[in-house]
Design brief:
- Residues 1-19 form the signal peptide.
- Keywords: Signal.
- The protein has 389 residues and is an all-beta fold.
- The chain has one domain (45-387): Neuraminidase.
- Helix content is 1%, strand content 57%.
- It is built from one helix and 30 strands.
- It has one helix spanning 149-153, and strands at 18-19, 26-28, 38-45, 51-63, 68-80, 83-86, 99-106, 112-120, 123-132, 135-136, 144-145, 155-160, 163-173, 176-185, 190-192, 203-210, 216-224, 227-235, 240-242, 255-262, 268-276, 279-287, 292-294, 303-311, 317-325, 328-336, 341-346, 355-362, 368-376, 379-387.
- The strands form seven sheets. The protein has a five-stranded mixed sheet with strand order 1-27-26-25-24, with no helix packed on it. Strands 7, 8, 9, 10 and 11 form a five-stranded antiparallel sheet that branches.
- The longest helix has 5 residues, at 149-153.
Length: 389
């Protein structure tokens, strides 16, 4: 979210590319989580038809010696033939710990790989695990940490061969700037490739996807907070190759929340939030191989946040996001049908209750599955819906 003084304002409704449409989503029972507040979740569809859900939930209040904090637990679950099964037990390496910034990625075979932040006192580290051979890896020694919070939080996760692949951000101090790189574990340490951003500019919010050969494509934000651009590049095997120029509908403005997915021809679709008359508005564009083509106009009509992007079997974008209505978050879903956005409307189980953290995926059958967390009597709980587009 941008500074508060920019939030007020109205979205100009002219030029919206929404097309009407409705569906009858089917409710899926969530996994048997303990009755604790859910803080974050991530959902992914595996090639074998199963679903993988990772969840961070509150566990209790504790003292660090400097003050109190909320301990949280990370768990992962797989849905196969209508039954949820927990993958292992609690995944954070240390308990109690504050946890945040959950990432879930599946490799080409559907192996789940997780990354998250564990924090205690002044230490903010990124931890990793992968589900291999029926158990979670013990990668506690692989943690990544920096002495500034920005470096530990500006990242994206993909997976290849059961291993994490990171787009990673670091702050540069002399001269000031930032560095975004793709990092892989080389067996002993985290290797770092060439930077894909302008080192002199403030760069952040990378998004990452891998083509079938494991070559990365990235998108990110570059520039000062209120005068930034969305940029994209791909690794051609020897160097970073820029993909056109800025993607934003207006250059040098407030942008946020970059999302990226590759179609079957490894062409990227990018989604992001952009300021429109003081309101965060969701947009998307597709790379044709030669230029960026906007996917219609604004996807959202209200103040938008927390976008989640996936592609259907035809390579069309499917977006979920939150819109604010009277202080209540409404989870919405839309699909690009080739010429316009089909808006599936609000998915809250109860439109009066606050809903957050949407995560959308597409099963091998082509069905869309949407997960989010919703406030039920003061406790956020997991909701899941499945629909056929």
């Amino acid at each position: 979210m941008r500074p508060a003084h920019l939030i007020p304002g109205l979205l100009a409704l002219l030029g919206l590319a929404h097309a009407g449409g409705s569906s009858s989503p089917t409710a899926l029972a969530p996994p048997p989580l303990a009755a604790r507040p859910v803080r974050e979740l991530q959902l992914a569809a595996a090639p074998d038809g199963s679903l993988v859900l990772a969840v961070i939930a509150d566990e209790g209040r504790y003292s660090s010696g400097r003050g109190t904090f909320t301990g949280r637990l990370l768990t992962a679950w797989r849905l196969t033939n209508g039954t949820w099964r927990q993958l292992g037990r609690v995944l954070n390496y240390r308990q109690p710990r504050p946890l945040a910034d959950l990432n879930l990625a599946l490799d080409e075979r559907g192996t789940p790989v997780l990354a998250w932040n564990e924090n205690y006192g002044d230490n903010n580290v990124v931890e990793f695990r992968a589900w291999k051979g029926g158990a979670w890896t013990d990668w506690g020694t692989r943690y990544l940490g920096e002495d500034v919070t920005y470096a530990a939080r500006t990242r994206a996760l993909a997976a290849r061969g059961g291993e994490p692949v990171l787009a990673w951000g670091e702050t540069l101090r002399d001269p000031p700037g930032s560095r975004l790189t793709v990092r892989r574990w080389n067996g002993q340490s985290w290797g770092r490739g060439p930077a894909f951003n302008d080192l002199r500019a403030f760069s952040r919010a990378p998004a990452l996807a891998l083509d079938p050969a494991g070559r990365p494509t990235v998108a990110w934000l570059q520039g000062e907070v209120l005068a930034s651009n969305v940029l994209a590049a791909r690794w051609n095997g020897a160097a970073w190759e820029p993909l056109g120029g800025p993607l934003g509908r207006r250059p040098n403005t407030y942008v946020a929340s970059t999302r990226l997915a590759l179609d079957t021809q490894a062409r990227p679709i990018v989604a992001w939030l952009e300021d429109v008359n003081g309101q965060d508005t969701l947009f998307a564009s597709r790379w044709t191989g030669a230029r960026w083509v906007p996917l219609g106009g604004a996807v959202s009509s209200g103040l938008a946040s927390s976008p989640s992007l996936t592609l259907d079997r035809g390579g069309n974008a499917v977006l979920a996001w939150v819109e604010e209505r009277g202080g209540v978050g409404q989870v919405r879903l839309a699909r690009w049908n080739g010429s316009a956005w089909r808006d599936f409307g609000v998915f809250n189980a109860d439109a009066r209750r606050d809903a957050r953290s949407p995560s959308v995926t597409v099963e091998t059958s082509g069905r869309i599955v949407l997960a989010w967390r919703e406030d039920v009597d003061g406790v956020y709980r997991v909701e899941l819906r499945r629909l056929t587009p």
